[in-house]
Design a protein that fits this description.
With 247 residues, the protein is an alpha/beta fold. The chain is built from ten helices and eight strands. Strand 6, helix 9 and strand 7 form a beta-alpha-beta unit. Helix 1 packs across helix 4 and helix 3 crosses helix 4.
């Protein structure tokens, strides 16, 4: 048909659903349970330093880390600045001086050992990988993300993996998505859907790139942004309905 890709519209339960072909999946807190992996890595790191990881310290780290990564996603900080400063800032808050870069190295080692799965992730991939073109789009360190993908058993379901460290740009920048789109053949925005947990990186990035977005909101966060996702789901198995396939 002269290379034209048609997007079908299907009525499903009162909703008008597109016929998607290309699915872009974020990794952390979308397919892999980063919270569980992070928690395990932090406990190992603090145990190695002979420091008790209290609920208070963990909560402060979470708040600090989220703020730093938001600055990164907005282009206000470089990735290396984020990862090499977070433990320095954390311990400074409690009156301790540490080598933040060295602690980051140990933390990364522990983090790469974790590959906790979001409930239903493997089952979903098994059910859809032959019907759709699946890709990973994630911010992070390549070595860590590749190892976690392989160890989790998810790697084999994806046609390609796009990691910000290798791309040279991070979500939600236009440059990141332009690079991804240039590597997918054939590519059609109308039949592409991004699935991710971050309103900033995934939903805003996808919206600005002109593709549909699915916000997987497992933790029940409030959407205080100005961007409304095409879909919002609470768990992965709700994707079956959006993709109009039988579970």
């Amino acid at each position: 048909m002269n290379g034209i890709i048609f997007v079908e519209i299907t009525l499903y339960g009162g909703m008008v659903l597109k016929k998607y072909k290309t699915l872009l999946f974020d990794l952390d807190d979308t397919l892999l349970d980063f919270g569980a992996t992070e928690n395990a890595a932090l406990h190992k790191l603090f145990a190695e330093q002979h420091i008790e990881l209290t609920p208070e310290i963990k909560a402060y780290y979470k708040k600090l880390n989220d703020r730093l990564w938001q600055e990164f996603e907005l282009g206000k900080m470089e990735r290396e600045e984020v990862v090499n400063s977070r433990f320095t800032l954390l311990f400074e808050h409690y009156g301790l001086h540490v080598d933040g870069a060295a602690l980051e190295g140990r933390y990364r080692t522990f983090l790469s050992e974790g590959h906790h799965l979001i409930e239903g992730a493997v089952e979903l991939m098994q059910d859809i990988y032959e019907q759709f073109d699946l890709y990973v789009v994630t911010n992070g360190e390549s070595k860590t993300q590749y190892k976690r993908l392989k160890d989790s058993g998810l790697e084999r379901y994806f046609k390609d993996v796009f990691i910000s460290e290798e791309v040279g740009h991070q979500k939600p920048t236009k440059e990141f998505f332009d690079y991804v789109f240039s590597k997918i053949e054939p590519f059609n925005r109308e039949s592409t859907l991004i699935v991710g947990d971050s309103l900033t990186a995934d939903v805003t990035g996808g919206y600005n790139a002109g593709i549909d977005t699915c916000w997987i909101n497992i933790r029940g966060k409030q959407n205080n942004s100005k961007v409304i996702p095409t879909y919002e789901i609470k768990k992965l198995d709700e994707l079956y309905r959006i993709l109009n396939i039988e579970k």
